[in-house]
């Protein structure tokens, strides 16, 4: 097929980690299915831990429209054993630049032009590489929200203007259109300025000004004031254009692995809205002590629950994010208190490692979600109108928790979890907040707001919705940047 007849082609660069690769793949699916684009998704061999479930999801993408290419692994053995996840991720991105340049050059040559290059925000350093190869439109895909994007754009300035640790800031940080944030609630990566991850993060954000625009996985109903603030800033030339095109999350499907999962059959026998779903994402971990306290609190609450368990870690809340051990042998349920499963068998179910989360959240029996507030999980809950119990662990999750509780109103939060990172929430507080979410007045208010959020998400993705229009607008720019080739 000649370039004049070929559909427009985009290249998406996904950061390591399921929380980045899977939503990027879902975005590519939307571009292909709804708008006729083709796409190459570039991933990193280093730090990639594709589980069978994730591999099945990626394999379901339309092969005729979406292809994958993996950059070769780079050495990381010189990094300290206790290096943060962000240090490892950003080091992989930096060291892979020569491989990326060669691969991207091949794609540009074979496709006789690429409409746009879309880099995960953690891969912002790749923007000059794409621009140097003649790609006419180079964008950053922010798989989180506008609040985080606002912080990232401001971080180089903050790094210069502030000398103390961010957690010691005397006044809340006010970001455009967002709820005021205590310094201690800001991005986990920047809380220790002496850690190598901090300098890497600041350097990464210096490349944001090179973007032609930002595609963001959020929607007007979730961040209405921030959307308006960014539109105003873009109109006066203070930042590149921002396109809120979300939520893009995996649809509820008839996936065989999901359909056969025993937890769904268990949910079938429960009353509507009666079950609390407990899951800390693909990488979140609790300490040994917190695992025991959570178990005791769930038991004392008397509420029905479905808990996706992971191996505990006293290291940090992201210990499982890039750790192959969590996908290996053994059963994390062995760390639960003795007799817990037997005592709660009539009201609770614990499953190891993984559950089909989208299908679980869509189930009529689920009435609440105890979550780490990862943005993918947040959007999956918003799409189906399930209220949340916010339990942030790492990354920008504390920021998300503040927004969900104080601005969106769709979440409750244990007071102890706001006290500090890795602060243990005692069993009494767990029991009380679980009961409040599932059967209390505050929980009912959050449930009503969640139902409104569900409606707003659906409206955003409707044919004339704001997110659909934003995506159409940015794709029009990509086609226009190629002149007559793809018109």
Give a description of the structure.
The chain is of the alpha/beta class and 487 residues long. 42% of the residues lie in helices and 13% in strands. It is built from 18 helices and 13 strands. The strands form 2 sheets. It has a 7-stranded parallel beta sheet, sandwiched between helices. A 6-stranded parallel beta sheet has the order 10-9-8-11-12-13, sandwiched between helices. Helix 3 (85-95) crosses helix 7 (196-205), helix 11 (288-301) packs across helix 16 and helix 16 packs across helix 17 (441-461). The longest helix is centred in the C-terminal third of the chain and has 21 residues, at 441-461. It is globular and about 65 Å long. Its EC number is 2.4.1.-. Keywords: Glycosyltransferase, Transferase.
Keywords:
single chain, 487 residues, six-stranded parallel β-sheet, 13 strands, globular, disordered C terminus, glycosyltransferase activity, transferase, glycosyltransferase, EC 2.4.1.-
